[in-house]
Amino acid sequence: MKEEIKLFGFLLLLLFFIIKINVLRGSCVNIPCSFDVDNTHDKNLDNSCKAYWSDSSSFTSENAKLKPTKEMTGDLTKKDCTTTFNNASLLQSAKYYFRLECNNPLKFTFTQAGVDISLIAAPPSPTLTPSTLEVEEGASVSLTCSSPAPCWSHPPALTWSPNLGQSQETLQENQDKTKVKTSVMNFNASHLHHGNKISCTAVYQKQDGIPDVTAETSLTPDISYSPKNVTVSVSPSGPVPENSNVTLTCSSNANPAVENYTWYSADGNQDTFIGTGMDLSIKVSKDRRILFCKAGNEIGVGRSSSIQIEVQCKYHILHLFNIFSIHI
């Protein structure tokens, strides 16, 4: 057997490091690959050259485990050995090496680098950046969801739930020539988002007739906001006798929690301070005052609607009693 030419050759994959690719069973995979040879042998790179892959570093075209066709391989004359396997069942979890064979003295197995294939039954969960969200209401937020795309022709579809704003998708290339699908969603933070899960779902198509598979990642935002929905409740409720005592309670929704409550009476355009605290006890009179409360935290202050306590006048009650007695 004619001895093979000994070449200075290498795969430009992570600078001699072995790249790792997770391959979803039933899907396809693209193996990014480029090589170089000594320039004295560039003339041997012609259309007769073919690519082979095997999980052994010592193999020939006869015992190669994988024999890509021209349609599955990059342009070898341009030192592009990127290979597509549309049927991942041809692969197994192993380390694969690339071999170049041309119908001339150029035959070489690149053992300095390879690709580590791992077959997986379920896709990895997408990556959310940032992984946590703590902002103040009104802040501009940009969430990035990314998921590996080992099959370039069928990258995962990324969806947001809920869809809070505009999103833009790209198929990006890593330094090791693998690719990742990325979706960026931009929105303004609202108190309505606080504590409500935001999730990104990656949907992977499979080529063996098996239904699509999905993977999800989520976060629960912590949105700081000033008091909202400030309300006043009265106990006892309904019309109350004149000069009786009632308790007013001020409540609201806020993050962080309310630090102080203040009470006011409104007289035209002038507000008069009358007390502090969540609860306020007062004696009602026929002079019906208009009241409201304010709730404040470190973010800001919220104000309730104005209320007016309904009072039963003693004179009115006595007058009705006298009329009733006369009729008897």
UniProtKB/TrEMBL annotation:
- Which Pfam families does UniProt cross-reference here? C2-set_2, Ig_2
Give me the segments passing through the membrane. Answer: none
Q: Hey, what's the signal peptide range on this chain?
A: 1-26
Q: Which UniProt keywords apply?
A: Disulfide bond, Membrane, Signal
InterPro entries on file: CD80_C2-set, Ig-like_dom, Ig-like_dom_sf, Ig-like_fold, Ig_sub
Presence of the UniProt keyword Transcription in the record: no
- One GO cellular component term, please give it: membrane
Specify the Ig-like domain's residue ranges: 124-220, 221-310
Q: Describe its membrane topology.
A: Single-pass membrane protein
Report whether Signal shows up as a keyword of the record.
yes
The record's listing under SUPFAM superfamilies reads: Immunoglobulin
Tell me where in or outside the cell this protein is found. Membrane
**Family annotation (PANTHER family):** B-CELL RECEPTOR CD22-LIKE-RELATED, SI:CH211-171H4.5-RELATED
Kindly provide the name given to this protein in its UniProt entry.
Answer: Ig-like domain-containing protein
Where is the organism placed in the taxonomic lineage, from the top?
Eukaryota, Metazoa, Chordata, Craniata, Vertebrata
